[in-house]
Every structure is written in C-alpha cells, then in structure tokens.
Design goal:
Glutaredoxin; 5-stranded mixed beta sheet; 5 helices; 9 strands; 27% helix
C-alpha cells in the first residue's frame, strides 16, 4: 500500500473518449485526486462519481483535477458518464496494472474462486507528484466533501492523512 510522502506512481490511461490521461503531464501544474472504484453503474460507484462531479468546480478552483479509475473499458465509461451526467474524467485500467501499483486491487475468494477485487480508495497527489493523502476502503456518502477539505489544506502544507484502514 502506498503511504503519504511517497511519489505517486506515474501512469497513462485512456479515458471514456479514448483520449490519454498522463499523470506526469500535470506535475508542477495541478494537484490530482485519483479515486479507484469497483465498477461502472453499481449504486455506490454511481453515488461516488456523482458526488465528485457535483463538486468538480470547487476542486478546479483549488487547481485540482479529479479522475476516477476502474477496470471497465472506455465504452462502458462513456455510457456510465453519459447516463449519469458525470463530468469527472473516467480512466480505464482494464489490465489492472495501475491499480496494482496503487495497492487497491487484491484477490478475494468469491464462490470458491479467486477474483480480483477493488478496495475503494482515493489518493490526493500534490503538484510535485507526491502522495499527500492515501485513503483506503473509503465510504461513498460524503467522501467527495471530505476529500475537498483535504485538498484545501494542500497549499497550507499540513500534515498528511494516513490510510484509514489497512487490509
């Protein structure tokens, strides 16, 4: 699991429009909130994505970009975005490589089979590419507002927030 103070793993992933999002391109320019979620269209994932979209303008005023990451493909992301009026950028990590780098994917036994599962997690990365907050197993309701409060502290250089839970 990643910890505050560590460099954020850099990555490039396609979004719902099949355009590439490159985390390294924001270094020195903007803060980034990266939220990992299990699946497009499920009730909790929908709530989380809507809450981040509803607060996106506030994050933007703090010079912060929000991206959501799941293993769904670009077409599923586009459908999910359009159906729910989402404005945040949704990235496709189909092979799970980025999620593994961030420590959010793990194998869990379900119905006698090992399946890849996602710890709903959020990372706040500062302009220098350093993880300032690593939040694992986060709730959905009110999470975007909680993350916004943490983003507001970034330029004040407050102490980082450690993981809420460690699996």
């Amino acid at each position: 699991m990643l910890q505050p103070g560590q460099p954020a793993p850099m990555f490039s992933l396609p979004d719902a429009d099949m355009d590439t999002f490159d985390l390294a391109s924001l270094r020195g320019k903007q803060h980034v909130v990266i939220f990992f979620y299990p699946k497009d269209g499920t009730p909790y994932c929908t709530r989380e994505a809507i809450e981040f979209s509803d607060h996106e303008a506030e994050f933007n005023r703090r010079n912060c970009v929000i991206v959501g990451v799941s293993r769904d493909d670009c077409l599923a992301h586009a459908e999910f975005r359009d159906k729910n009026g989402l404005s945040v950028r949704l990235l496709s990590d189909v092979d799970g490589k980025v999620g593994h780098q961030y420590g959010v994917y793990h194998y869990r036994e379900i119905d006698g089979h090992k399946k890849l599962a996602v710890l709903r997690s959020t990372f706040i990365v500062d302009k220098q590419g350093i993880i300032r907050h690593a939040l694992y197993e986060v709730p959905t309701k009110g999470h975007a507002a909680e993350v916004f409060q943490l983003v507001k502290q970034l330029d004040g250089h407050r102490q980082p927030c450690k993981s809420k839970k460690t699996p």
